[in-house]
Amino acid sequence: MGKKKQGKDKDAGQGGPSDKAAKASKSGKAESTASRIDLADHKLSKSDYLEHLEALQVELNNVARWLQLTGHRVLVIFEGRDTAGKGGVINAISETLNPRQCHTVALSKPSEREQGQWYFQRHVAHLPAAGELVLFDRSWYNRAGVESVMGFCTPEQTDAFLAQVPRFEELLVEDGLLLFKYWLTVDQEHQEERFAERAEDPLKRWKLSPIDLQSREHYEEYGRARDRMFKATHTPHAPWTLVDFNDQRRGRLTLIRHLLDHLPDVQCPEPQFDFPKLSHPPLRESFKTKLKPLPPYPRLA
């Protein structure tokens, strides 16, 4: 999948927790278990989250330059239960990247014509070209999840999909595609909180659908379908990676860090531009027509 980055663990060999614990033990001042604080159990503040995210986004921009220079192709598949946080992590990855290079794909239900195609056909059209990063907000794995659980396909169609998808993905990887598959995990308690938030928030209500509401009663059934899918499609050439998204901020950072660590660690120089001073004072916009800008938005006070 690519050369892993080295030296990312700042705790290893640099006076991290393990070194500190060893020194404390030697001095007879070993920290008690009760006094230890597992930072993973504490919710990140928004400011801490944004600080960590910005550092990761700088690395993502380096990856984008590497893709442009080498012509490699990267496909990242995001799957998981409703409300897990797929859209949020996709936005965190893509928001600082060139939209001509980084594409998000979120397909709606297949049209009547697409239902008569080879199942993978409509997804193939959205695979990355040279130098591109494509993020799939759900993917062909709908067939093993919602379509199977909600009865939108036959058991025979699900069986055929699970038999075909490892071969399909192997062909993609053999052709040089860098493929990553992430499953975002969320407990039903958090899922219910997020459903309720969407129902109450007019800016998030579009995320709710009748299928989402029906799926609440099929939590365990979705879990069984997921496990069957993992058993058939977790392969050496296209493995699954599970990320805990009960805490969405920490989940985004965890996923992006994993993605970066599994791409080649190649530093691509940023383009340098001369930025000379203007040869004249800055000019104001002027219009020699009847067209004028709209009046400013009224103040709320």
UniProtKB/TrEMBL annotation:
Biological processes annotated in GO: phosphorus metabolic process
PANTHER family named in the record: ADP-POLYPHOSPHATE PHOSPHOTRANSFERASE, POLYPHOSPHATE:AMP PHOSPHOTRANSFERASE-RELATED
Pfam families cross-referenced by the UniProt entry: PPK2
Domain of life (superkingdom): Bacteria
Protein name: ADP/GDP-polyphosphate phosphotransferase
Keyword field: Kinase, Transferase
Function: Uses inorganic polyphosphate (polyP) as a donor to convert GDP to GTP or ADP to ATP.
Signal peptide feature range: none
EC nos: 2.7.4.-
GO MF term set: polyphosphate kinase activity
Subunit structure: Homotetramer.
Comp. bias intervals (Low complexity): 24-34
Homology family: Belongs to the polyphosphate kinase 2 (PPK2) family. Class I subfamily.
Region (Disordered): 1-34
